[in-house]
From TrEMBL:
<keyword id="KW-0812">Transmembrane</keyword>
<feature type="transmembrane region" description="Helical">
    <location>
        <begin position="221"/>
        <end position="239"/>
    </location>
</feature>
<feature type="transmembrane region" description="Helical">
    <location>
        <begin position="95"/>
        <end position="113"/>
    </location>
</feature>
<dbReference type="GO" id="GO:0016787">
    <property type="term" value="F:hydrolase activity"/>
</dbReference>
<keyword id="KW-0472">Membrane</keyword>
<feature type="transmembrane region" description="Helical">
    <location>
        <begin position="122"/>
        <end position="141"/>
    </location>
</feature>
<dbReference type="InterPro" id="IPR007404">
    <property type="entry name" value="YdjM-like"/>
</dbReference>
<feature type="transmembrane region" description="Helical">
    <location>
        <begin position="147"/>
        <end position="171"/>
    </location>
</feature>
<keyword id="KW-1133">Transmembrane helix</keyword>
<keyword id="KW-0378">Hydrolase</keyword>
<dbReference type="Pfam" id="PF04307">
    <property type="entry name" value="YdjM"/>
</dbReference>
<protein>
    <submittedName>
        <fullName>Metal-dependent hydrolase</fullName>
    </submittedName>
</protein>
Amino acid sequence: MMGHTHALSGAAAWLLVAPGLAALPMAGGIAGGLTPIVANVLSPAELIAGAIVCAGAAMLPDLDHPHATIAQTFGPATWMLSKAFNWASGGHRHATHSLLFAIAAGLGCHMLADHYPIGRDIVVILMIGLALRAVGIGIPGKTITSALVNIGLTAGTFVAFHSQGVGYLWLGLAVAIGSLAHVTGDCLTERGCPVLWPLKHRWVLPYRIGIKTGRAFEIKILGPVLSIVVIALFAARLMPESI
Ligand SMILES: [Zn+2]
């Protein structure tokens, strides 16, 4: 599945799920009394920030692919990170394309958000960068200019979030939802994913109906439909009185 399809699916998943989770009475009690995860998720700025972070998290599993365009998001920094992901996960579409990864990444980022502000900010910046790169904002390619422009755009977005008073108690949740959206998306492709990794079995659609990455269906139908869904969900969440 292509990068922008993943990113759009992550944003859509966040806009669909997050407001409902925030309304749950037990939202503050998940993970054994840790700081409330989604306490402020309903503020418009955090809904938007969450959608962008979740879109970036929906690219995270593909950091296991050092030759993919997102590995160049911040130039050598993300390329080296991608090399490490590739080595640690056993290659492309292995450990990072699983339920276990989504849960571990979510819990890990939740811990960072709760206790380590610098680590939290690094994760947020990485997610913004991946999201912008995936939807084609910034300069693609391998040059140092492209990395610098992407860093500048990401920094601007991060500062904008900060100026709007965005808190990140929901960071782990957004990373988990984004990673799950990625795994779900890749399960709809012809190659499938090892959802229950470390079990090796790949989950694929039956009768070879899986989507072929980058072909007409994804580009001409799925991408535009997802774009409309994301815009409609933003409208519905940010202007509820108009629906
Ligand atoms: Zn993937």
